[in-house]
């Protein structure tokens, strides 16, 4: 698990700690991580495990909605920032900066995703258009693209969920 937020009688506090759950002791253990590219404190990020690394995508820290990608090597516990490219204009998720928190309002920045082989499907909000957009990150090439669909999905709620039920056979 990575990051999070807490508010006890004051402004929100954001974290960038990483924890591992032990099924042997049924307890959480804080990981002592290193690396200069540790993600800044944030909540609402999306995490997944791929080839011995925990990846952390995006999040929110009270002022910025992030679309960056970091990975934690689970053997050495070293953080690094992952550089990605995109297939064209507007084919990678975009964040928002310089937000002003007001009355403890938390902006929704909850991307959701699913890992299929070496591809991450990520459902995230396109803030400019007020729509949900399905993005694909090829983890071998670290390249974003948009998954084209026949209809657009508005951002009616703040909680998105994504599931995959079998993939069509390709001939």
Task: Describe this protein's structure.
The chain has strands at residues 2-6, 13-22, 27-30, 46-50, 53-60, 65-73, 78-81, 85-86, 112-116, 119-126, 131-138, 143-146, 153-154. It is mainly beta. The chain starts with a strand and ends in a 17-residue tail after the last strand.
Level of helix content?
A: under 10%
Oligomer: single chain
Largest sheet: 6 strands, mixed
So how many helices? Answer: 0
Give the DSSP E fraction (strand runs of 2 or more residues).
Answer: 35-45%
Mean pLDDT: 82
Structural class: mainly beta
**Distance, first to last CA:** 39 Å
Provide the succession of SSEs.
EEEEEEEEEEEEE
In total, how many beta strands?
Answer: 13
Which term fits the overall shape? globular
List the helices and strands and how they pair.
Blueprint: E1 2-6, E2 13-22, E3 27-30, E4 46-50, E5 53-60, E6 65-73, E7 78-81, E8 85-86, E9 112-116, E10 119-126, E11 131-138, E12 143-146, E13 153-154
Parallel strand pairs: 8-12
Antiparallel strand pairs: 1-2, 2-3, 4-5, 5-6, 6-7, 9-10, 10-11, 11-12, 11-13
Summarize the structure.
With 171 residues, the protein is mainly beta.
Keywords:
6-stranded mixed β-sheet, 43% strand, 171 residues, mainly beta
